[in-house]
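Cont'd.
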Amino acid sequence: MAAGTNAIKIAIVGGGLAGLAAAMKIAEAGHSVDLFSVVPVKRSHSVCAQGGINGAVNTKGEGDSTWEHFDDTVYGGDFLANQPPAKAMCEMAPSIIYLFDRMGVPFSRTKEGLLDFRRFGGTKHHRTAFAGASTGQQLLYALDEQVRRYEVGGKVQKYEGWEMMSLVLDDHQVCSGIIAMNLNTLELKAFKADAVIMATGGPGLIFGKSTNSMVCTGSAVSACYQQGARYANGEFIQVHPTSIPGEDKLRLMSESARGEGGRVWVPRQKGDTRNPSSIPEKERWYFLEEKYPAYGNLVPRDIATREIFQVCLDGMGIGGGNQVYLDLSHIPAETLDRKLGAILEIYEMFVGDDPRHVPMRIFPGVHYSMGGLWVDYDQRTNIPGLLAAGECDYSIHGANRLGANSLVSCVYGGFIAAPAAIEYAKNIQRNGADGSRVYDQELQRQQEVNDALIKQFGKENQYVIHEEMGKWMTDNVTVVRYNDKLKETDNKLLELMDRYRRISINDSNLWATMALPHARHLKNMLELARVITLGALNRNESRGAHYKPDFPKRDDENFLKTTIAEYSGEGPVLSYEAVDISLLNPRVRDYSHNKQETVSATVAASASASGLPPKDGAKQVPPEGEEQKPENLSAPVIWTQDKEKVNAPVRDDATRKERDKGIEDAGGKSDKL
Amino acid sequence: MSTQVQTSSQQNPPKSVVIRIRRRDKPDAPQYWQEFELPYRPNLNIISCLMEIQKNPVTREGKRVTPPVWNMNCLEQVCGICTMVINGRVRQSCSALVDQLDQPITLEPMSKFPNVRDLIVDRSQMFEHLKRVHAWIEIDGTYDLGPGPKMDQDDVMERYAYSRCMTCGCCLEACPQYDGENYIGPQAIAQVRLFNMHPSGKMTRDERLEGIMGEDGITNCGNAQNCVKVCPMSIPLTKAIYEENRETVIHGLFGWLKR
């Protein structure tokens, strides 16, 4: 090591919840942070998270546990998540909530003055701590405040208004810094770092309109992918069931609206144009409650989204259009104001109706990417010195994310990435021999890209290309996917990439221009759009958010595996990696029944198949009349049986060792919080 | 997936939307006005109008110009970045709906902050103020020390109101006393209130009070009460100023006794 450990400097790209969580931990450990953010960090997309943060604190006497949270998370994610990190996150979750409580987040309270918890989708427990209906805003501010404290202390240097363009990789493909661009001057600059943590959030803008903020382009992550970072499970895009369609974006209507008793319905009569309040109860079709009696309106997002989509496709939407009602008007206005005030204001502000008295009109909208940069259980990507945390990594949510798990996964990711980055930085040979050569080379490469874009003149309009990409992606790569449409979409993306070569920067004033940064984003978005589309094309099954009517079942035999995309220069090359299912055996995901019943069904099935997943693939929803539940098993017995299976030997001893190590690593870290 | 929510549509919707933008090419350049016209659609907000202009920046007179630039991010009025002066009133442009605005619609950058270009301003001063008033809880560490202090839901609700401040700057733009240097302004004072109300925050209350007691401190408030009228989050800013004024007076009178 060239100098003492105090000389360690970590670059963090992105100042949302994950980035700030990592920054706080690194600064607390006494090391330096360069924090890059396109917008002032307090304006990051994390502010949009509304409903809450999950943690099995079990203050409601419901017998909740971190294991139960873990089981819900993996089950909700349709068994595609590697289980050890998901378990470690759930174990850390209560202490994360307590930490934010200590940092002054105004979490809602019970009469005794304790933290209050509400219910969210995909669980039967009150597990979600919340600060009104702007929990993300409150959590982000708490971290922003703590990081500002370290900024004053000189440990954190913020580069707000700087955008990462690329990684600096040395001759051995080791990450040793980044190139960033000042968004006012367009100046490109190389920043040295011992390790780089990506915390840039999701890529919603690839779909044109989404619930994401305008900085959520996925551009920086795409740059990493194009420089050799592996991108995993890109095809898993969560479409949130309830968003408010708008001209410029789809505004989220939080799941907490259903958590607090909101009911989804359409008129039973097709094309009924009556005022919703005048439609009597028996003429309303509460289709989620009818189809999923166990979870009702709180089925996981992918299921709610498909049901709403299908209802509208069948012409049962309000007035025959693409809208259904989300109704809170039966709940006292005072309760609504206290628990959901912020989101009701959003609806009122942007639509003009008062949801306290009139049912809201909602439709699904692209919301979250479960996929992202491939990372190991310490949040390390395949590029040495490059780590990732938050929505931009793929690690926790499998095929579908449960509501209120995003905030906790961001903080968890940041808290794991920070010590891992420090550990890495302590142990690397700081290679002085390269000097500034690798930085100069990369700087020059990026300058050439900018110069070429500024000089080139063509008839194509970059904003039109973005719109077309968004429309194709939304129409063909979201709720329902068909292979022929996916192929067409990929061809369209290739066409758009070709047309991209003929765009003009329509702004002759380069000071603080929006045109050049957008052109850089667009190229990167197109590359990532192909990863998403081809990942979907090659996954011939239905799992979580990924649904193909031609392959309606989950196919564990062929597709219980992680999609890995690597950039070849011409596009993504796909390969697959086994999923770590060392803790829970995959079982049928069926939200029309209670979870215990699905466990018992799996116990019965696995007894005959000696612990292996069912051969014929699992069903999302059993056909009517097919009884899966053995009658005589009570819940406690099932849990005993299930927990025994955790300790049962897994197929391959070598991988088992790896897995055990992973569990220890992840679990050990959680103690250090 | 692209259907619009139908609002209570206007009786006679206009055919077009006329937008006048006060522009500036770079910090030291003069300001000038340009007028744009675009076809009317229901449910337009100012951001979608600006996006439309950006795509094809041609003025009403048919002259091709550089596209106006602005800041935007969440578009849900929680990030605060897209704040500008619309028809003379400071507010977020994402939640400014064309159907509720008189035409022609005028867009101007906020006037109390350095104007970077067109509608973009630099509000970093507000974040500097947060440093000065120590707007954070002094936690011992981020390791697991169990839950925070118990709190009354009523106190939580009051703190929640202050903690929704998104540092947008509306209060400073509307404040007749604030001109960038002579007064720290309602935003920072409300944050002092937020942290001084917290059971742990109280313990370092004096540091925050000293942050608002200097020459440019809380006594510069002229009680115009504009701040509370323009605050998009309906934060009780004047209440915060009242409470903190009381606290600083007591601290000023008796604070030395603690030393």
